[in-house]
Amino acid sequence: MTKETSPQSQPGVLPVFQSKDETRAYYNKIAKVYDLLAERSEQPMREVGLEKLAAGPGERILEIGFGTGHTLATLAQAVGPQGNVYGIDISESMVAMTAELLENEGLADRVRVQCGDAEHLPYDDASMDGVVMVFTLELFDTPVIPRVLAECRRVLRTGGRIVVVGISKEGKQGLMVKAFEWTHRHFPNLMDCRPIYVRRALESAGFRIEDAAIEHMWVPVEIVLGTNP
Q: Cβ(170)–Cβ(214) under 8 Å?
């Protein structure tokens, strides 16, 4: 993957060192144990993000990078039988696991999941009321982030909402962040993401910021709500 100098809106952000094929292989490999590795720390952050999104009955909501499917299940309950939820993820194993989860919970009829690349979303212009990404945007290399967010704006209707939950360069940058970044630099196969500036990325992409907070798990997390003006 070609590395480029970070734009001004993302100073000091490390590049992504793995290719998309390597990322896909990694998540295919860990899909069955992902929740054991991450769910306990990610769930509270995800819940805050979903509160900000406030999906409602009859809406059409897209999640990019849905992983093991917990957010999709919550969204499906929120939009009800008249709504639709869409999910796209790079990992075939995550898609298979999520499809099974949704079937078991009786929600498969209102959720459509597929493998795909967020740089080229397979959805019509202005077709979504909301887009959500939870610990996904920081997996994209810095030059790619604007392209992903441009696709989000394209598929969102005017006034549509976007919520991004991401590991952040904002907030207190202590030893844990330094250790995180050191591991990402030297062992990208184990730590494929890195802290980014979430709010700045959304602002640069043209979203209007409606709410932004910095929470903490073991590193700072930005939870940002934007709208498509």
A: yes
Q: Domain 20-227: which CATH class? A: alpha beta
Entry pTM: 0.93
Q: Where are the domains of the chain?
A: 20-227
> Residue 161 forms beta bridges with which residues?
130, 227
The per-residue pLDDT for range 201-222, each reduced to its tens digit, is 999 999 999 999 999 988 999 9
C-alpha span between 98 and 66 (Å, rounded): 8
Q: Is the pLDDT of residue 116 over 80?
A: yes
The answer to whether 46 and 39 have CB atoms below 8 angstroms apart is no
**What is the number of H-type helices and E-type strands within the chain?**
7, 7
Give the full edge-to-edge strand order of the sheet including 60-64: 111-115, 84-89, 60-64, 128-134, 156-167, 220-227, 208-216
